[in-house]
Amino acid sequence: MSRREFLKTAASCLGALGFVKDSWGAQVSGVYAGSSKAASAGANGIYLNQIGFLPDSSKVATVSTRAGSFLVRSLRDNSVALRSTLSAQRLDNASGDSVQFADFSTLKVPGAYRIELDSGVSGDSFLIRKDAYDNALLLTMRSFYGQRCGCDVNLGGGYAHPKCHMDAAFHRSSGKTGRCDIHGGWHDAGDYGRYMINSGITTGTLLWAWESYGASLHDFALQIPESGGKVPDFLAEIQWNLQWMLSLQDNDGGVWQKQSRDDFCSFIMPQDELGPNYVIGTGSVPYKSTCATADLAAVTAIAARCYSSYAPVFSQQCLKAARTAWSWCQNNPNVFFKNPPGIHTAEFGDNDCRDELLWATAELWRTTGDALFNQAFMGMLPQPLATIKIELPSATRVASLGYWSYALAGRNRSDAAVAAIQQATLKTARELVHQSSENGYGNSLALEDYAGGSNAVVANHSLLLLIANQFEPDSSHLDCALNNLHYLLGRNCLGISWVTQLGSHPLQHPHHRPSVADNIVAPWPGLLSNGPNANPADPITKALPRQAPMRMYVDDERAYSSNEPIISCNAPLVFVLAALHAQSSHR
Ligand SMILES: [Zn+2]
What we know:
The chain has helices at residues 10-14, 134-146, 196-217, 233-247, 290-306, 312-331, 354-368, 371-380, 399-408, 415-438, 454-471, 475-488, 513-517, 539-542, 567-585, and strands at residues 2-4, 27-29, 36-37, 46-47, 52-53, 60-63, 69-74, 80-85, 90-91, 98-103, 111-117, 126-128, 153-154, 160-161, 168-170, 179-180, 194-195, 258-260, 277-280, 555-556. It is α+β, with helices and mostly antiparallel strands. The protein is globular and about 70 Å long. Residues 1-34 and 36-41 have low confidence and may be disordered. The strands form 6 sheets. Strands 5-12-11-7-8 form a 5-stranded mixed β-sheet, with no helix packed on it. Helix 3 (196-217) packs parallel to helix 15.
């Protein structure tokens, strides 16, 4: 007996990220009921980052149960560390809650604590410590090892699988035929596809984290197979995916769009998805697509910088790949991808590759200093320069990454272009700070942002704020970036931590095939759910009663619109946690 599994139109799941996964269906044996858990995890109406706080950062809990004053009690000796009054009550439109704030920022002494209200309600325990987020950085970055394809994976605790997807072949849409030896990379999300477009922004974001905060990441141990080698763990993990990306570049410099089966599989372990994993192209000459090729150029240009000290041969290989990919795009600027007949995995269609080319050009210029790339970049800028707008980075909208890389490069730049980029970024940052001040749970989302991938939007807001802070240091930018992290880790109306195995009430049922199929109760660690979605496609999220947008979430593995981890969601979270690690390491 079998029935059709759920339709997956990840327009909702990923729409705000600018990419679209196609409808899908997969046969599953038996009547599958799924597992879910009430979304409201508790926390007694006192909502805060369940991991804790850095000693010198601001510290605010949102309280949705009526009270007048609060105290913070030390768990070490039961003493009262701080007493204060709650703010006046106000209505939060994002959640529909009446909320008050408990601000205990003046408490800086490291330790374990809990909040108690004068109404008798107590919250969960939390920590104040210098390295409060180091374990979060470890789990979220190490989750990429858990997503590895084509090698034995063992995270410990039973979270393991043998080599998967080693059987590869050229799909007829690729312009080639026969079996091939292309494997590796990271599984994209809850599914096992590997997509150049989403790999592009993910890998670029992680390499940017290294470039911004590498000094403190150099010795950060991830316990991966390459640990102890010449390449620092952080870069070694990224190199695993880079090597797969490079393997999708054809001899002419163009890059195929993706590698996957013909359709999504049911909830099985990766080694159980059998049959050829296809290298998939556009179906006609030149078979490779412009956006995928430009993304590879951008990412390998960054990699050429990052690996030059640790793996010079690989660095040179990356630079060569970037140059040939960029040249291919000059000759093929408008080759767009649609899923060929018979292929139903994620498409990442995009009919405008100018932003990918802008990003690639900026990165190549930053790496090489070659005037050709500077000239090309300047020619792509909107005129007048004051019309430059900063769009939030997403899989198919990457112009901001190009702008920022140019402005951060620090040599031979157009001062006018840099000033315009900085002003546009700071303007957006100020808007996010304002939105955060309006939100009852401190995040910087506008009401319309609770759509596909809202948690990735939150994390990318923080990335933008941290870039803005590099342009113009401002504590309000840092506070806002941190408040978004607090939201993801428990300061939200559901009292949930949206990262698996982090916090006192983490999600339990992500739409993540290994987490469902491995027969272990807790899901694989360090995965950020894509989060509340007021415009869902899956029937489980859709079945929720219409309510305030922050509440449009269900912890159910069938809810791909609101509960699927995606590598491009984890990457900006790693960026933020790396920034905090760097900050705490310097004290
Ligand atoms: Zn695999």
